[in-house]
Specification:
28% of the residues lie in helices and 28% in strands. By secondary structure, the chain is of the alpha+beta class. The protein binds guanosine-5',3'-tetraphosphate.
Length: 529
């Protein structure tokens, strides 16, 4: 196996959460530990604020800033950590889902007060599709949250994963006194605003019956902790790391990101147990990081809206071999060789031109329209990486061309924007009505603006009464033909010519499913790969 040292050093992951649970704050604390930033508050500018929801230019401006922080690489205890940022705004959720295809593990932040929220559920579903290993950070323990046992039960049930507490909290809110580390039997006492280099007030215990525990916590809380630990230890025992790596069990940490409390314990465990760059499935065979030859795939394309810098950046996740500047690689979909003279990596906020990159790394490639999401680069082989799905959009609108002289530009613009993953494009089956599907209203604004400014095409949207697009297929060709014929107003083709059923409501969808047991309905396009 080649590049063993380089691969062994790398951990590539994402922090995900429902908005406001504390993702940005936790990211910042990680960067402080990694020495990538010096002051708190440095990451904040990256965040799309709530009040900006109706102003997509502002959001794009902030997204522009976030290109630099799309991938944050830093070293911690000789481990090279690639932290992939995911947009906080729900309208860009699909960006997040695709980013999850480029990581080897995730840290999921849950707000101890709100528990499992809508976006937590959806993100976790995406992780479960790929068995991505998950560590859970229960944040905001300094606030009066839910009872910890109830909260764990809720998470297990709602997210359908077994949990393994690694630390155990002593109270919450004003009474929050700290966490007990179930693994190394230390008690970490809570102080607000712990700084990154401070180990806090840590006391090691060989025996929880030690009187020192009563001294530190008071008799009532010490007694409670002893009872809790006995119960938790009795149920969970020691973490089996292979259960975590296979995505069956999620280790859980309690803390308070804003106070930098409980973060270091998690980061230390993370670098110990989080998976190295993993083997990945392709259309032809499994590709492993230690192979000689380069392979990688594009999981994100960022277009700059600033008319002075109309560049696009394709984000390539390196999966095997070594990426080198100025070397020719095979662009599988286009069947042509391409090379990159200015590839860059992301060390915290600076963009650096690089000479080489290794599995687990993300490389930024300047693109003039050659790439679309899911494209694969190799050193000659013709495979492509699978598992980069399109998810069903939730809002559908028909495209009405307002300027017939510009139909060509409109067509080209729509194709390019949908290649970038801004939205999905469908064509009415047997007709030529174009339908755009997105997860959020904002993307329609983005599309309209960009088509006008970049392609000179003006369009209008007509809302359509659909709520989901399901990719359909059947082993029975005749049944499939009948279904598409009878339901043709609800049938469309995606860009790759796969058939989708556009459902008006859950009721319609369930009815069609019940009436057509020979037709499979899927919420992602991945089935066709
Ligand atoms: P997000 O990226 O997941 O959307 O969340 P973010 O980190 O921005 O945190 C959301 C809010 O929660 C922020 O407050 C942040 O300061 C707060 N927060 C994060 N961690 C903790 C914690 O451990 N305890 C408590 N009590 N609050 C926490 P905000 O008022 O929305 O923003 P800001 O004015 O502080 O920037």
């Amino acid at each position: 196996m080649k590049y063993t040292n380089e691969i062994g050093k790398r951990r590539t992951f994402a922090i995900i959460s429902h908005p406001d649970a504390g993702k940005t704050t936790l990211t910042e604390k990680f960067l402080l530990f990694g020495g990538a930033i010096q002051t708190a508050g440095a990451v904040k500018s990256n965040k799309i604020k709530k009040h900006a929801t109706s102003d997509f230019m502002e959001i794009e401006r902030q997204r522009g800033i976030s290109v630099a922080t799309s991938v944050m690489s830093f070293e911690y205890r000789n481990v090279l950590i690639n932290l992939l940022d995911t947009p906080g705004h729900k309208d860009f959720a699909e960006d997040t889902y695709r980013t999850l295809t480029a990581v080897d593990s995730v840290i999921l932040v849950i707000d101890s007060v709100n528990g499992v929220e809508a976006q937590t559920r959806r993100l976790m579903e995406v992780c479960r599709m790929r068995d991505t290993p998950v560590i859970i950070f229960i944040n905001k323990m300094d606030r009066d949250g839910k009872n910890r046992f109830d909260l764990l039960e809720e998470i297990e049930k709602e997210l359908n994963i077994r949990l393994h507490p690694m630390t155990w909290p002593i109270n919450s809110g004003k009474e929050f006194k700290g966490v007990y580390n179930l693994d190394d039997h230390s008690l970490v006492l809570f102080t607000a605003n712990t700084n990154a280099n401070d180990d806090g007030d840590v006391v090691q215990f060989n025996d929880l019956n030690d009187r020192l525990l009563d001294e530190k916590l008071g008799e009532r809380d010490a007694l409670q902790l002893r009872e809790d630990v006995e119960l938790v230890d009795g149920v969970h025992g020691k973490l089996d790391v292979s259960d975590y790596v296979s995505g069956r069990v999620a280790p859980v940490f309690f803390g308070s990101a804003i106070n930098n409390f409980g973060v270091k314990e998690m980061l230390d465990t993370f670098i110990r147990i989080a998976p190295l760059p993993q083997c990945r499935p392709t259309s032809e065979r499994e590709v492993c990081p230690g192979e000689d030859k380069l392979s990688g795939f594009v999981f994100k394309i960022h277009a700059n809206l600033d008319p002075k810098h109309r560049d696009r950046i394709a984000f390539l996740r390196v999966c095997s071999g070594r990426f080198e500047r100025n070397k020719y690689y095979h662009h599988v979909r286009l069947n042509k060789d391409v090379r990159f003279s200015n590839p860059y990596t992301f060390m915290a906020r600076d963009k650096d031109i690089i000479e080489e990159a290794f599995p687990g790394d993300v490389v930024g490639l300047f693109d003039t329209g050659n790439f679309k999401i899911g494209d694969t680069l190799t050193e000659g082989e013709g495979f492509y990486f699978t598992g980069i799905p399109s998810f069903s959009p939730e809002i559908f609108k028909e495209v009405i061309n307002k300027d017939p002289m510009k139909s060509k530009q409109l067509e080209k613009g729509l194709l390019q924007l949908t290649d970038e993953g801004v939205a999905q494009l469908f064509t009415q089956f047997g007709g030529n009505k174009k339908i755009i599907g997105c997860v959020g209203e904002l993307q329609f604004e983005v599309i309209q603006y960009r088509l006008l400014h970049e392609y000179g095409a003006s369009l209008q949207f007509n809302s359509l009464p659909f709520y989901k697009a399901c990719w359909i297929r059947s082993k029975d060709q005749k049944k499939m033909e009948d279904f598409t014929r009878f339901k043709h107003p609800n049938i469309a083709e995606d860009k790759d010519g796969h058939l989708v059923y556009l459902a008006q409501s859950e009721w319609y969808l369930n009815t069609e499913r019940n009436n057509n047991p020979d037709i499979e309905f899927h919420f992602t396009s991945e089935i066709h790969k």
